[in-house]
Amino acid sequence: MDNNTVVIALGGNALGKNGAEQKEAVAKTAKVIVDLAEEGLNLVITHGNGPQVGMIQNAMDNLAMIQSEYGQTALPASVAMSQGYIGIDLQNAIKYELYSRNIDKKVSTILSQVEVDKEDEAFLNPTKPIGRFLTREEAEKKEADGIKCMEDAGRGYRIVVASPMPKKIRELQTIKTLLEAGHIVITCGGGGIPVIDDYGKLSGVSAVIDKDNASSLLAKELNADLLIILTAVEKAAINFGKENQEWLSDLTVEQAEEYIKQGQFAKGSMLPKIEAAIRFAESGEGRRTLITQLEKAAAGIAGETGTVIYK
Ligand code: ADP
Ligand code: MG
């Protein structure tokens, strides 16, 4: 891929929390994406799926409770459904925006599986809560079946799963082929469907891959120069939310590592973005990550705002 390839990771605020919100949100998101496509960038779009996969998993759990013949739906199946559910709305919104501007460009959504290492230490200590809240009795029953549950912030019990590191994007060649054919590609939704390669047979695992980490790996594999993480804040900050808060514009890998040591970035929200940016910067020369708000993407690319992490 040439250096015009840019991976854009969309956060929760680009998608909304339910079907109606999603349709509205993606229409706005599509305008930003098509603005960037008009600049001549080859775009690969990734996205989160926290609320959506939660919704699907809850729905499938409830179905299994009411009609036992359907059985339990495995988490990787729900991730796959979330990729389709989000992907189709994003794809159609981008397509419509292109059409409105008379741009003849294709948009594709690629369901993607991301390999994880079955020896990943994350499996020893699952911490990511998913799905509906359970009663203590339900949680104990699941634990007896070997499914780990944890009390979640006083609100009840929930299943917890591991968040292992992404190792290999199985559909990489397909993504490259479509990019070369001029498509805007939507892929690696929700960090990808986590799978283990068992001598050529892919099996889904009950885990959630962090979408920022998966996006960083994808940007590396596509030989992109720029990874853009669009989220709810214009910049990353130190002393976030405190009186002495300072927004960060330029951030070297060394500085970023120092701030991580100081605990400046919250686990599960800003920390994975900074870590993904560091990993990308270290994967090759000249690789930068821009963290900013959806509405500020163009200004961020122009160097006017956002936090840029580089080596
Ligand atoms: P996304 O869906 O885009 O991944 P997250 O909620 O996971 O969004 O992460 C973005 C959030 O991280 C911001 O909205 C902000 O509240 C939070 N955050 C935590 N620490 C920081 C920090 N040091 N600087 C900026 N934002 C931070
Ligand atoms: Mg997040």
UniProtKB/TrEMBL annotation:
Matching CDD domains: AAK_CK
User: Would you tell me the Gene Ontology cellular component terms?
Assistant: cytosol
Q: Which InterPro entries match?
A: AceGlu_kinase-like_sf, Asp/Glu/Uridylate_kinase, Carb_kinase
Gene3D superfamilies of this UniProt entry?
Answer: Acetylglutamate kinase-like
The annotated pathway is: Metabolic intermediate metabolism; carbamoyl phosphate degradation; CO(2) and NH(3) from carbamoyl phosphate: step 1/1
Q: For the Aspartate/glutamate/uridylate kinase domain, which residue ranges apply? A: 4-288
Among the GO biological process terms of this entry, one is:
L-arginine deiminase pathway
* Catalytic function, reaction form: hydrogencarbonate + NH4(+) + ATP = carbamoyl phosphate + ADP + H2O + H(+)
| Keyword Metal-binding set for record | no
Sorted keywords for this record are: Arginine metabolism, Kinase, Transferase
The UniProt entry's sequence similarity note says: Belongs to the carbamate kinase family.
Spell out the protein name for this chain: Carbamate kinase
